[in-house]
Structures are given as structure tokens and as C-alpha cells.
Amino acid sequence: MIHAVEVEKLSVSYFETTALEDLSVRFTPGQLIGIIGPNGAGKSTFIKAIMGLIPAEATTIRLLGHSVKQARTRVAYVPQRSAIDWDFPIRVLDAVLIGCYPQLGLFKRPTKQHRIHARSCLERVGMLDYADRQIGELSGGQQQRVFLARALAQDAHLLLLDEPFVGVDAGSEGVIIDLLRMLRDEGKTIVVVHHDLSKAADYFDTLLLLNRRVISVGPPTDVLQPHIIEGAYGNPLAFLQKVEVSS
Q1: Are 216 and 240 in contact (CB under 8 A)?
Q2: CA distance 95 to 150
């Protein structure tokens, strides 16, 4: 089987601090996967490491059955909103057109067909009416939907999203998770760094619970057990106050 993500013995260190240690995991395609864990557990580091954005040591890192370099055009990465310069003067449509660039080649400009494709992607996420707006004028939820449109324009088969629900109102969060489910049902694999345990069971098919190493991975009903959560968070009572685990 070709895995959407295959990682063996991944370790990341910053100076004298170990961010991830000897992490091995495989994700089958066509799933909505949540990466959970306490603050400082290495969730965002995991995403950046498998994308090749930070130095890492690993026996294997393969995305969609290929090396990171070979798979890059088929992988879309959406960083945390705090990492993006929202004051940069770019229109919504132009932001989505960036998703077409891997298909264009060096120094080529988007064609009329690319613009039509970008507009159809905006329409699909309910943002076509905002095509000529500056992206900084949008709400947090609208900005995240634009980045999903960019991933659609790229025709990415693997989407990696770092905390997409932070700073997003409840209505927009519902729209975004519905879009992610739709993409999953089309066969795409979506990996989401997520912090809200109370919604993890409802949102994801598979959970990876980290605390610098793999604590547990599997269906939410298996991972979201008090004794397992205690292994990552150290306080099962705090977890039980937020989540009711169904049997």
C-alpha cells in the first residue's frame, strides 16, 4: 500500500532541546487526521519537518509514496495564521492563483484558464464574491477558506493545515470542517494540527497524540481515553471536564 504519509524514526532538535524523538507513523490515504497534544508537544514541528521546512533526522519521510521533493507539487501547506503577513497587498483571487504556480514553471504567468480555475475554486468554498478584496480585509474564517481554495487550485492530494480553527468564529469553523470532509470524501488526505480535544472525536477519522514522541495513534475512540490522555497531558481530570468519550 502507498501511504499518504510515512515517517520512520523522525527526530528534531533545536539547540539542546528535543522537539521530536524517534517518531514513526503511517497514514493511509483518504482520511481526515488530527494531530493533538499539549503545548510544546511538537505538533507544528511534525508538519514542518515532513514538509522539509526545518532540519530533521529520519530514516524515512515519504509523502504520497514519494520523497518530499518529488511530492511537493501535490502537497498543500497552510501555516498558522500568526505566521502570515496579512498586511501584504494581495487580492483574494491572486492568493488563490499562487496554487497554480507549480503547474506553470519558472517565470510563466497565469493564463485565462488558470484564472477561471481559481475563480471556480473560490466559488467552491463560498468566497467568489470576495475575489477582488484585499486578503487582509477578510475575517479569520474567510482567510482560511481562501487558503483552502488555493489548495484546490493546486490540485493537492495531501493537505497539511496548522491550527486552521484558531481565531475563527463558530460559524466559519463549521464551514471549514464541512469543506475538509468534502475533500476527504473525494479521496484527499487532510492532516490538521488541532488543540480542542472536545471536538477531536467528531472532526477526525484518525488521531495522532504527541508529546515529543508518539503517545497513541488510531481511531478517536481508542486515543481519547483518560489513561492515554494522562500519558500526554499529565492531568486526566482536565480532559474529562472537556470531553465525554463514547464507548
Answers
A1: no
A2: 7
Q: How many residues does the chain have?
A: 247
The rounded distance, in Å, linking the Cα atoms of 202 and 129 is 30
Residue ranges of alpha helices (H) inside 125-209 are 140-154, 170-185, 197-203
Q: What is the pLDDT of residues 148-166, one digit of tens each?
A: 899 889 888 999 999 988 8
CATH number for the domain spanning 166: value is 3.40.50.300
Question: Is residue 65 assigned to a domain?
Answer: no
pLDDT confidence of 206, banded at 50, 70, 90? very high
132-152 pLDDT tens trace: 999 889 988 888 889 889 988
Residues 169 and 167: their CA atoms lie apart, in Å, by: 7
pTM to 2 decimal places: 0.88
CA 216 to chain centre: 19
Burial grade of 210 (CB within 10 A; 0-12, 13-18, 19 or more): buried
Give the residue numbers spanning the domain of 42: 25-53+76-242
Measured CA distances, 97 to 61, 66, 90, 94 (Å): 29, 25, 11, 5
